[in-house]
């Protein structure tokens, strides 16, 4: 069954939760291309460039609700119990996004597909009001899916299992309840300030990826001084336009 919710609605609800992750006390600040500084110190987004942090890239995916006996993954070798969910990976002939996300992750970055264990507006509203959007989501690294050909590909999943349908094979994902702990561990390993190396390294890395593919993103008007705010927004633009992903900056929560 096709989902009733849009990727935008799901992404908005999930982003609202990631902005302030309670346990452990982290913040995942979204860097939205529509938020231009307009003279505001700090740039119009809640990022402290003087404390440690790292970029996080998430591509939001809607979930198809599979509930009938003729659902392909309910049969061997997958053998999913009904009902379960399925997310589609953008076909290679439509976009190189999956290959580019693989490259992005291959550079040591935190990159994920995120898809919900629900598909209706009512379920989304209940999860949003209850603060359970993330805990009812599954996070999958592009590397778990691996390289794909030009055919259609999807990933089937439920609360316990994740399966690449085209291979077919079982893969690993991250349960929503454990996602904040994964981010916390990354932050413990990398204690560099955003204004030092992480931002410039990341921007240089993604620019090389899109240059190799002869992609030229359209940037909004930016200050000409090339400051940190300018580069952070430029990275967000590239993430959305070229990788189909939302850029977050993950840091410790501050009072």
Structural commentary:
This protein is α+β, with helices and mostly antiparallel strands. The protein has one domain. Helices cover 32% and strands 20% of the residues. The chain has seven helices and eleven strands. The protein has helices spanning 7-18, 97-106, 121-130, 142-145, 176-189, 198-212, 228-243, and strands at 26-30, 54-60, 64-66, 84-89, 110-116, 137-140, 153-157, 162-164, 169-171, 174-175, 246-252. The strands form two sheets. A six-stranded mixed beta sheet has the order 1-11-2-5-6-10, with helices on both faces. A five-stranded antiparallel beta sheet has the order 3-4-7-8-9, with no helix packed on it. A hairpin with a 4-residue loop joins strand 8 and strand 9 (169-171). Helix 6 packs parallel to helix 7 (228-243). The protein is globular, with a radius of gyration of 18 Å.
């Amino acid at each position: 069954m096709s989902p009733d919710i849009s990727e935008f609605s799901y992404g908005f609800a999930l982003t609202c939760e990631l902005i302030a992750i309670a346990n452990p006390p982290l913040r995942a600040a979204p860097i939205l291309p529509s938020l231009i500084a307009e003279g505001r110190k700090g740039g119009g987004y809640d990022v402290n460039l003087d404390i440690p942090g790292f970029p996080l890239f998430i591509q939001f995916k809607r979930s198809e609700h599979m509930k009938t006996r003729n659902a392909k993954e309910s049969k061997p070798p997958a053998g999913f119990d009904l009902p379960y969910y399925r997310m589609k990976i953008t076909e290679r002939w439509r976009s190189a996004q999956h290959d580019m996300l693989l490259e992005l992750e291959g550079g040591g970055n935190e990159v994920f597909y995120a898809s919900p264990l629900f598909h209706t507006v009512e379920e989304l509203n209940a999860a949003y009001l209850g603060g359970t959007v993330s805990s009812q989501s599954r996070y999958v690294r592009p590397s778990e899916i691996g390289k794909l050909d030009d055919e259609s590909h999807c990933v089937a999943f439920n609360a316990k299992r994740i399966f690449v349908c085209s291979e077919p094979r079982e893969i690993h994902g991250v349960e929503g309840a454990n996602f904040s702990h994964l981010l916390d561990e990354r932050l413990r390993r990398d204690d560099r300030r955003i204004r030092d190396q992480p931002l410039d390294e990341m921007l240089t890395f993604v620019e090389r990826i899109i240059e190799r593919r002869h992609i030229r993103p359209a940037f909004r008007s930016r200050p000409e001084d090339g400051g940190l705010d300018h580069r952070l927004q430029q990275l967000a633009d590239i993430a959305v336009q070229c990788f189909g992903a939302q850029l977050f900056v993950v840091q410790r929560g501050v009072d």
